[in-house]
Amino acid sequence: MNTQKYTFHVHGMHCNACVLMTESELGDLPYITRVRSNLKDHTVEVEGNFGNKTPEQIAIELTVPLKPHGYTVSIEKLQHAVRWNDFKIAVPIALGFAVLFVALQKMGLVNLASAGNVTYGTAFVIGIIASLSTCMAVVGGLVLSMSATFAKEGDKIRPQLMFHGGRIVSFVILGGVIGGIGSAFTLNTTATFVLGLIIAIAMFILGINLLDTFSWAKKLQPSMPKFIGKYAHGVSKFNHTLTPLLVGIATFFLPCGFTQSMQLYALGTGSFLTGGLTMLAFALGTLPVLSLISFSSFSIQKSSKAGIFFKTAGLIVIMFALFNLINSLVVIGLIPPIFNF
Question: Which residue in 16, 154, 216, 271 has the most C-beta neighbors within 10 A?
Fold first, then answer.
């Protein structure tokens, strides 16, 4: 059997989760033997038996399984057009959110408890943003893939309940474990500042990426080792009674920058209880949108207002990053307290 190798451009890639998603979906095609996505130049290299098909025909075929996830394959690089006009709406909304969030903090409605520099209310809000962002597209893909498998057998409700239940429980337990690991290390003032700085930088990069304006920032986004994400994503391919539960647990290890930022928070708490509750608040924030994805074809990426939403979300995440940076500078004593809540 003669194999051929082609490199195509992929429009719609935003983060390392996109790399995992494109490789997984294309790797399932029977005529493809090898696939490798590259976030740096937004390309995918495929190898397989394509017969006498032209590159144009292959690109169209590869787009079919990726289109539902917001990706398009082409033989030529598509020019990315930055929609600056979206900021005219995104900036006022983000500022309005910031004012509302500060007001709720002052009233004590979202300042339910403090986990280092982040509150459970903040973790919940970040969870909502994460569930709507492109970084959670891979989780939505897992849910849809699993749903399709069990729907063929007429079982629609139970797998969804097992998935969401397993996800929430695992986030609590594994978040607690991370917090417990953090308790084994005594963090002095300098170490606390460094951890806060790392979290602030990670969230700042996430926010910049959500703006979809500066392509260079995508190269800076940290991620979990690729092989871990692949194994976690591969769990959804098994057709077993416990598969939905295992998929829910596996989402804790997927390459989502938001999840990893919250995991760093949990580590810094140095407490099993606080770490578990922080991750619980984050998981509950993602629950409404992931539930919609479970039972419908909901996707913010398909909306005509997606650009406005992502820019608004990016600005809000950047605000959270700056808020965390300021708190870290207060902890080390470089600046006096600015926010008294």
Answer: 16
Q: Which tokens go with 99?
A: 């004012």
The pTM score is 0.66
Alpha helix stretches (DSSP H) within 108-225: 120-132, 137-151, 157-183, 189-211
Domain regions of the chain by residue span: 4-74, 86-331
Place of tokens 């997984």: 24
Lowest mean pLDDT among 137-141, 242-246, 259-263, 327-331: 137-141
> What is the tens place of the pLDDT at every residue in 88-103?
998 999 899 888 877 7
| CATH T-level fold of 4-74 | Alpha-Beta Plaits (3.30.70)
- Alpha-carbon dihedral sign for residues 180, 186, 188, 194: negative
- Strands 114-115 and 4-11, bridge-based pairing: unpaired
